[in-house]
Amino acid sequence: MADLPTTALGHDAVHRYVLGHFASGVAVVTAAGPEGPLGFTCQSFVSLSLEPSLVSFAPARTFRSRPLMRASAAFCVNVPAVGQRDLGSAFAGPGDRFRGVRWSPGRGGAPLLQGSCAWISCDLVHEYDGGDHTIVIGRATGLRADASRDPLVFHRGRYRSLARPD
């Protein structure tokens, strides 16, 4: 196995390529904004602490709606299920991300996306500098899951589903 030449591709491209080999979950973080619901697809979501119940995600600093989400102080982490690739893609791109999306208001008005396999309602606790991203810490105030649904996974630049054991 050889290292990729960073001089030919550039460090950022190599970083993205190599870390793309780590399979991650897909989350859609939502909040209520002054002019309607806000949301974006996020792969950098993790459970941070059991006591207290904390989670973390890291949106890019260039994400324009982040100040509006910060002002609401409440958000929901929606975990899309297999079969919701369109949801992950819609919230990753520009435009009206909620067009055709069924949802109901959760804590603080943060949208709970229908069909997800899990929902984590949170209050904003802290934000930290994370280079070209902001590290957001939230306290879980409500937790729900639908055990009949499997989560959507992201690996090597594509949405995937979990393999079923034999």
Protein described:
The structure is a single chain. With 166 residues, the chain is an alpha+beta fold. It has a single domain, classed as Pnp Oxidase, Chain A (Roll). Helix content is 16%, strand content 42%. It has four helices and twelve strands, in the order ααβββββαβαββββββ. The strands form three sheets. The chain has a seven-stranded antiparallel sheet. Strands 1-11-12 form a three-stranded antiparallel sheet, with no helix packed on it. Strands 7-8 form a two-stranded antiparallel sheet. A hairpin with a 2-residue loop joins strand 11 and strand 12. The longest helix is centred in the first third of the chain and has 9 residues. The radius of gyration is 16 Å and the shape is globular.
Layout of secondary structure:
Elements: H1 6-9, H2 11-19, E1 24-25, E2 27-33, E3 36-42, E4 46-49, E5 54-57, H3 66-72, E6 74-79, H4 85-90, E7 103-105, E8 111-113, E9 118-130, E10 133-145, E11 152-155, E12 158-161
Antiparallel strand pairs: 1-11, 2-3, 2-6, 4-5, 5-10, 6-9, 7-8, 9-10, 11-12
